[in-house]
Amino acid sequence: MGALLLWLLMRQIFGSREAKMTLDALHGQRFQPNWLWLGIASALMPLNWHLEVLKWRNFLPRERRPPVAHSWKAILGGIAWSFLTPNRSGEYAGRVLSAGKQERWNAVYAAVAGAYCQFLVLTGLGIPAFALFGAYRGNAEWQGWRGFIGMGLVLLAFLLAAGLFIQPILGFLIRKARNPFWRKWLAKAEPLRAFTRRQLTAGLALATLRYLVYMFQYVAMLRFSGIVLDPGKAFAGVGTIYLVQTGLPLPPALGFLARGEIALLVWQTWPVNAVQVLVATYGLFVINLALPALVGVLWMLRKEAPKAR
Fold it and tell me: Which end of the chain is more exposed for a tag (fewer CB within 10 A), N or C?
């Protein structure tokens, strides 16, 4: 399985039409990269994923938390698995599979809670970014998206309330469920009631830090490729891209294509070069996802090696 993931990873990075087009476009272009910014974006990658490790561990039972190194292996294994599924949804399943057998149900609940916190932050900061982006665009085409902003705010309020009052809500649903199927699955969700508001607050804080690190990484990659934007435009553009690309449930190959297409659609609002946009976008993909996934695959191959003997 590790070998299959490695092949898929290499194929997605080096075999895609978009990657080839980007490399071909670089030939003959006057491209003067600022290597300092590439170094900054790369140096922030471990911090980005360490915040995810801390967020995941925050929702694991204190007495059952594995060593930090083992948590890192589970996170990296999840990133590798994400290349097999739409919208990186397999990241959480892979994280559970990479965890020890005794920890798997706890890993499921921690993954659900962590994903919930990250989605709240993504939506809570992404909607203002999208609204600001619409203000920069200013044309009738983008004014028509105001209704979606309102719907997003309603969804955000609903999800936040559900998290804050999950204990009474789940308790009520479990008591009222009559169908055996629903009673069974609601009973499996009951451990979610054990999460405290303190854990939820810590999870949201870590998710916010991750979001800000990602945003700064993207801005650093834009600076690396020669694109300099003021903070307002950077927040509007990066926040909109992150909101849209995370919300599209696309298979891996189309997801890779969508990254470039969404970035071009957003950044063409300002006078930027398409090749520079693609370099920044796909460069950040390699730094934040491809390289950690490669480490995760190599760890899985090493884990499978004794079984092959």
Answer: C
